[in-house]
Amino acid sequence: MSPRRxxxxxxxxxxxxxxxxxxxxxxxxxxxxxxxPGFVVGVDRGRYTVLVEDRLVTAMKARALGRKSIxxxxxxxxxxxxxxxxxxxxxxVRQDPRTAVLRRTADDTDPVERIIVANADQLVIVTALAxxxxxxRMIDRCLVAAYDAGMEPLLLLTKADLAxxxxxxxTYAPLKVRYVVTSLTGDGGLPRGLEELHAALADRxxxxxxxxxxxxxxxxxxxxxxxxxxxxxxxxxTGRGRHTSTSAVAxxxxxxxxxxxxxxxxRSFGLAHVDPARIxxxxxxxxxxxxxxxRGCTHDEPECALDAWVEGGHAxxxxxxxxxxxxxxxxxxxxxHGD
Length: 339
Description:
Largest sheet: 6 strands, mixed
Structural class: alpha/beta
Number of helices: 7
Distance between the termini: 91 Å
Number of domains: 3
Number of strands: 13
CATH architecture of the largest domain: 3-Layer(aba) Sandwich
Radius of gyration: 27 Å
CATH topology of the largest domain: Rossmann fold
Strand order of the largest sheet: 10-9-8-11-13-12
Helix content: 10-25%
Shape: globular
């Protein structure tokens, strides 16, 4: 005997819930009129440390911001829990317009730009006079990046107790770049020249860039007591510093006297984002010499007027080395060449 067939009615029909809800979709984004302003002081694996008034808030980026990068120095707007409690998490929903962006690439042919910091107005190029030896071409690259970003450069020379600074500074005298000279220890164990450096940083947002081992973190720890930035030594074999700082961080100077942004040590500073035609504009000691260049001159050819300009002493004693640095930068923009 076959089993009796069951009769079904509407109560047996199961309707899957509409997971997207019944409200019609809209392209209008929430206005977030209650969003509070904040200043990004640290970034770590998708979490952002943001200063809101007098407290530090942990935040994540809202999905609506998409692939927009948020870096140290950003002025942002947050919603959610901005209490700063240990388990609180806010959302960054808006990014204020940037006043300046410091960029670099891995090399001069890499199309991918890496934004280091936003909204800084001063680039502090930190180099040791010895241990490790200074690399003038790296400094030239940083100067080009600073001028291109609309930032004022400041040369910060460390370890002046190991080598004389005058010969090095003569190379950059035609540029009239501001500089501060410091040495390892002074009164009370603090670096000598610290007061002059503090005066140069006052009321500014300054980003420190330099090789590992040049003393950036040591100076930051002296400028901002309690910063606790890791410090390291120079490798005796390679002559290079060991990476200590692993991420950029913004630190307020005492008495609310400005901000310093310490960055990890860099091995290279690519300028793929800078138009080669603009590079000469960032060598103000050489640019006047291009007035007699032939039309379309690349400034790296036999007919270039810069050779006669430099030979005539118009660019000062450092002219030959500066011209070679310019041409190395221009050649590096061609695949197959390097710094």
